Write a sequence for this structure.
């Protein structure tokens, strides 16, 4: 497997030329990098005007590896070839490096780049990327990979220190300014040389004080005054190292790389709203920075958020009065770490009454709004306290908990809420303080603990009776001034006290069932399952030609092929589905097949659009202008990987994606609408298709003049 690394943008608050002077002092060897034994220049080129300087070095490295491994490999040192291309006119330095030793077994590529800061020409930016591919190494592939990654990340950390070290060295020598390259004058070479020497000497003598007055002398990689925004000082699609440290926390080089690569992948494939960096980081942490696993759960969550319109829940949904009166929970200041504090008096809450009065869906939606509010408060506290705050603390008071809280439908609702929150709000719970746990608590804990992630469970602190008042108790985590009054504190807590929900507010089972169905399908989308050999099809009848069929669907699981067919005959709906193709589907999805097996293409029906292959996680929107009246069938069909051909091998991403499909089953969530010909004015601009994917990096464009469909597909 190829290991990749991508650094954030590192900003040096020094001019490019001074950074280059510091960088060149690393050669031929660097005492700050013990493994860098020596280097020899093997090739060098300078342009006549001195603007371009290309130098190729052979570097000798002493890798810190077990003696036995070195003996088996038969080498004491490893050699790399490094090519530096300096363009003083453009003020750029590109560094390309690859391994010479064991190049037939191990492939290492590295690219580094020093450039001028896009918003301040007196600052310098640095970026670094690398890849490691171990083909074979005497059966020690895993060991070599670990050694290589350890050595590389160690040197990444030292890179910043090395430049700073040589900058200080230059300053001690009185060099705080290096003049920029200028085209040589037309005068004779002797005059030119003399002039340049005088200019350099004059600059070195007088610039030191001026540079310090401007804040440039002796400052290496310090933070700008005032907090930077995510893209401040760097291109919009890149992250600044200072921003990461200020808003996201201290990350290792490999963790930074995972965040940058996953964020870049989203920017290239997802056409909708990009999740915030803090949210991307939460999914990475939840999967121990495994990019593939984090990407999978994040794509599922983004689809879920779109389906249930969670992004707008705080603006468009208001909790029913019953929840406002009887849900014993609310936000209450913050803990000692600056995390928002949520207080839940579960023992005082009538879970049975709330479920009977509202149903599961209203409770779930309320919990989602609480989590969305928590994300917002984390952002606010990050700005207030000047340090990254990405999670909140929850204080749960269990006084009053008894067997009525173990009512089966209530426990079922709780388990579903836990499942949804775990899947879509990972790493948002910083600490859970459970106070005054009664004897019945172990029973409840036994029921719910299997549904809680191991990482989340480690954040639980449980206190029985009044143990929370002693050493290691509540005062270790919450300031005395904000401990709620119902816990013998001094702060008045405005969280509702809960209590029994009046039975007059209870709703019948039929009402709750209808309400739950309404809430589940409140979004305009329907869901369907697609099996191998059993596509899902829907029927759309068109009376007037030139009507426009529009669609919007998400591929929730697996890869599918999307087709559109036209038929003059009306397909007979399956007997098992009395409502036909337009029935309301259940949350689990359904499967409807309309094209009869005896139908023949070209005779009974015909394809009016080219097949469109859609990958798992992609979101597809498009339209089709009908030429004829009749019946149109939209079909989602299971997509199988084509057989490998010598001249047309599938991409690595495609193979990996196919391996992730655990069964011959796909899921889609779709919405279709027909725009009548009288409402259609011929403007295809508003009907251009857009295709955004969460799992693929590809691009394609398709069009069909036969169907009068102007569509653009971009992934």
């Amino acid at each position: 497997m190829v290991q990749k690394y991508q650094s954030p943008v590192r900003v040096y608050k020094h001019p490019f030329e001074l950074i280059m002077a510091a960088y060149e002092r690393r050669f031929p060897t660097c005492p700050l990098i013990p493994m860098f034994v020596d280097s020899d220049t093997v090739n060098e080129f300078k342009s006549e005007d001195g603007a371009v300087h290309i130098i190729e070095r052979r570097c000798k490295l002493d890798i810190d590896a077990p003696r036995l491994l070195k003996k088996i490999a038969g080498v004491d040192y490893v050699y790399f070839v490094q090519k530096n291309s300096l363009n003083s006119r453009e003020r750029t330095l590109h560094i390309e490096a690859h391994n010479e030793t064991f190049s037939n077994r191990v492939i290492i590529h590295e690219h580094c780049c020093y450039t001028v800061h896009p918003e301040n020409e007196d600052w310098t930016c640095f970026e670094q990327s690398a890849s490691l591919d171990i083909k074979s190494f005497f059966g020690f592939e895993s060991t070599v990979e670990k050694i290589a990654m350890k050595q590389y990340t160690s040197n990444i950390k030292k890179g910043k220190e090395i430049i700073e070290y040589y900058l200080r060295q230059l300053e001690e020598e009185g060099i705080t300014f290096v003049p920029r390259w200028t085209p040589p004058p037309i005068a004779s070479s002797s005059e030119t040389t003399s002039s340049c020497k005088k200019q350099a000497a004059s600059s070195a003598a007088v610039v030191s004080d001026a540079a310090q007055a401007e804040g440039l002398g002796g400052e290496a990689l310090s933070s700008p005054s005032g907090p930077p925004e995510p893209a401040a000082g760097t291109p919009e699609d890149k992250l600044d190292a200072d921003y990461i440290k200020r808003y996201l926390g201290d990350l290792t080089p490999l963790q930074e790389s995972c965040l940058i690569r996953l964020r870049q992948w989203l920017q290239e494939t997802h056409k909708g709203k990009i999740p915030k960096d803090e949210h991307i980081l939460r999914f990475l942490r939840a999967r121990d920075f495994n990019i593939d696993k984090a990407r999978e759960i994040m794509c599922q969550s983004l689809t879920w958020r779109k389906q249930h319109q969670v992004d707008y829940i705080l603006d468009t949904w208001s909790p029913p009065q019953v929840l406002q009166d009887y849900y014993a929970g609310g936000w209450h200041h913050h803990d000692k770490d600056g995390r928002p504090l949520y207080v839940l008096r579960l023992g005082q809450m009538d879970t049975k009454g709330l479920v009977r009065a509202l149903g599961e869906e209203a409770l779930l939606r309320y919990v989602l709004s609480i989590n969305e509010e928590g994300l917002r408060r984390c952002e606010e506290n990050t700005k207030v306290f000047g340090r990254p705050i990405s999670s909140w603390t929850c204080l749960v008071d269990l006084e009053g908990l008894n067997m009525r809280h173990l009512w089966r439908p209530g426990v079922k609702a709780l388990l579903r809420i836990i499942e949804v929150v775990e899947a879509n709000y990972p790493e948002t719970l910083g600490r859970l303080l459970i106070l005054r746990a009664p004897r019945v608590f172990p029973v409840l804990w036994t029921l719910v603990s299997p549904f809680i992630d191991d990482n989340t469970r480690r954040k639980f602190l449980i206190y029985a009776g009044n143990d929370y008042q002693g050493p290691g108790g509540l005062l270790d985590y919450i300031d005395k001034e904000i401990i709620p009054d119902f816990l013998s504190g001094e702060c008045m807590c405005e969280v509702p006290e809960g209590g029994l929900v009046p039975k007059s507010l209870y709703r019948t089972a039929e009402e709750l069932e209808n309400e739950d169905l309404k809430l589940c399908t409140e979004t305009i989308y329907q869901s369907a399952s697609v099996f191998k050999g059993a596509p899902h099809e829907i029927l759309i009848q068109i009376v007037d030609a030139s009507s426009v069929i529009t669609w919007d669907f998400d591929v929730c699981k697996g890869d599918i092929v999307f087709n559109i067919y036209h038929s003059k005959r009306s397909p007979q709906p399956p007997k098992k589905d009395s409502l036909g193709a337009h029935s309301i589907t259940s949350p689990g999805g359904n499967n409807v097949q309309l094209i009869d097996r005896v139908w023949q293409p070209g005779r009974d029906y015909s394809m009016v659009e080219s097949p469109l292959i859609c990958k798992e996680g992609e979101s597809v929107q498009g339209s089709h202008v009908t030429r004829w009246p009749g019946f149109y069938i939209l079909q989602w069909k299971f997509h199988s990987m084509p057989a490998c051909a010598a001249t047309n091998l599938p991409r690595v991403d495609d193979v990996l994606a196919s391996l992730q499909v655990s069964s011959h089953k796909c899921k889609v969530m779709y919405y279709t609408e027909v725009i009548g010909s009288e409402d259609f004015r011929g403007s295809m601009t508003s009907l251009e298709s857009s295709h955004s994917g969460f799992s693929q990096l590809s691009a394609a464009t398709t069009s069909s003049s036969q169907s009068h469909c102007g569509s653009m597909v971009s992934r």
Observations:
- The chain has four domains: 2-173, 241-308, 322-504, 523-571+591-640+663-687.
- The domain at 322-504 is CATH 3.40.525.10 (Phosphatidylinositol Transfer Protein Sec14p).
- The first strand starts at residue 3 and ends at 6.
- The chain has a mean pLDDT of 78.
